[in-house]
Sequence to fold (94 residues):
Amino acid sequence: MMQEALDIGSLDNFPKRDIRYALNVIKEHNVKSKKQLWLGGIPFKFELSTFVKHYASERTYSEWRQILKDIGTSKSNMERILTSYKKLFKDSTK
Fold:
């Protein structure tokens, strides 16, 4: 099974590797931090902060605020994440 996981190759080529798909999965399965996501039988701890950092440049500050609100992020966690990655977010003036 591990060999099969290694044979998958680069996740950069993984189908549906985009923010819209990821957000749909998070909403559909009510994924919160401290849960695990399973990919091909391998568990991955879900880190909302890491997720936002990865996709930060694809959305503006206000879009991220709404996304985090929509998925039920606690206010304190939302503020911490928004403050941490504010400089990485897409510029809303462009």
